[in-house]
Amino acid sequence: MFNPLPIIIADYRRNRLMVVVTLLLVAISVATGITVISQERALRQGSARAADDFDLLLGSPGSPTQLVLTAIYLKPQAIPLLSGDVLDRASTARGVRYAAPIAFGDRWQGYPIVGTIANFALRGGQLQPAEGRVFQQRGEAIIGAAVKLPLGAQITPQHGMHEEDDDDEGDAHHHADAAHQALHYRIVGRLPARHNIWDSAILVPVEDVWAVHGLPTGHAPDAAPHLGPPWDAQYLPGMPAIAIKPDSIAAAYGLRTQFRNAQSQALFPAEVLNDLYLTLGNVRDLMALLALSTQVLVVVAVLMALLVGFLARRRQYAVLRAIGASRAYVFCTVWAEVSLLILGGALSGLLLGWCGSLLLARWLATRTGFAMPVSLGMAEWLLLGGLVLAGALIAMLPAWLTFRQPIAAGLSS
Q: Crossing angle, helix 396-403 and helix 327-368, to 10 degrees?
């Protein structure tokens, strides 16, 4: 006898329920670990990619995290406004390719309307409209790839960035705001997909956002009509944030130092995200440890159940020995039967964890506003390999007990 597979297959068929339960337990424990690790990586990569368009961010002194969440991930909160003087100085500062005001306050059917300048809409020339063109005059808008509007459509902004504004008080305020009702934006272009929350944004001239809220537009009333800089500092209102595109890395550090003062905070979004990643990493490590502990407990419980089953079938293995099977054959048969169950459960868990991560990433993308690329990294393979190796080693216990069982004792049981 050299081929243990017929014996293993026969045992699997005779103990279908045990096989199914074992596979499910191991698969679920592996899938949990795979999902935790891959989702943390996907969240890290997706959030970092969403911040790629913001080299340097200026805001009023306060929480850097809140500034990043508000300006980059469009999670508006009540933050202090940055003085218009800062925009005037940033626009003319040395080493600045563009300084773009970021102004919120309105939406249309759930899509945030963001006031800015054309340079920022096209990321300083890095982007080209997928359709149409960028706005060139007041009352025009360019939309993100996910905004369900055709070119040429006209929309009227709704005051407020949150759905809560749709209650009775919000409706009364909305209908009383004649300025919003009188303003109409015509869609003149669509941006290519960026796979972040800005795909759902409607970008309009910042002058329109300021004017509709009763603020100066950054230009003297008698000045020649134009959008964006040069600004007239006397007519610049406050704004939530300014996105600066520096000419170089050296210029970026110089600008950060220049605008980090009592009047404003200047930060690299990557630095703020790194702090968040450290927190996420700690949570991930804790969750991975819990998942690994669960896997070990599941494997031990499964092997204890299998051990009881093997001891109950020791007469079967004694008969094999009696008809000529060697101790090594019996050892390999029992070891392979347990190891294959662990391996099958681990591979099933890998597939289950991968599918679960994809579904979870899609759901989280709708909540966070940015795509999360799911992938399997070295950590997942190490987790899988470690479990299979541990299962193979622990499987030697029932194999060894069966190996040393005397034939006479087994036949008499």
A: 170
Rounded CA-CA distance 90/255 in Å is: 9
Structure tokens at 198: 């800005």
Rounded to a whole number of angstroms, the CA Rg of the chain reads: 32
CA atoms within 13 A on the CB side of 215: 18
Q: What are phi and psi of 143, to 5 degrees?
A: -110, 155
User: Which of 379, 413, 411, 400 lies closest to 303, judged by CA?
Assistant: 400
Which long-range contacts does 177-184 make (Cβ < 8 Å, 24+ apart)? 179/211, 179/212, 179/213, 179/214, 180/106, 180/156, 180/212, 181/156, 183/139, 183/156, 183/157, 183/208, 183/212, 184/139, 184/154, 184/155, 184/156
CA distance 175 to 158: 9
Judging by beta carbons within 10 Å of its beta carbon (0-12, 13-18, 19+), is residue 360 exposed, middle or buried?
middle
How much is the pTM?
Answer: 0.73
Residue 371 main-chain phi, psi, to 5 deg: -70, 145
What's the DSSP call for residue 369? S
Residue pair 36/372 in contact (Cβ under 8 Å)? The answer is no
Using CA atoms, how far residue 280 sits from 42, 45, 152, 285, in Å, is 12, 12, 43, 9
Instruction: Give CA–CA dist 37/268, Å, rounded.
Output: 26
The three-state secondary structure class of 313 is coil
Burial class (CB in 10 A: 0-12, 13-18, 19+), 126: exposed
Closest CA to 34 of 391, 272, 264, 361: 361
Tokens representing 223? 């000045």
pLDDT in tens, 145-200: 999 999 999 999 887 655 444 444 444 454 436 666 778 899 999 999 988 889 99
Q: How many residues does the chain have?
A: 413
- Please return the burial class of 348, using the count of CB atoms within 10 Å of its CB with bins 0-12, 13-18 and 19+: middle
- CA nearest neighbour of 73 among 106, 46, 36: 46
Q: Which of 386, 399, 374, 392 is nearest to 307 (CA)?
A: 399
In the chain, how many H helices and how many E strands? 15, 11
State the Cα–Cα distance between residues 286 and 292, nearest whole angstrom: 10
Per-residue pLDDT reduced to its tens digit, 127-147: 899 999 999 999 999 999 999
C-alpha closest to that of 342 among 400, 394, 397, 401:
394
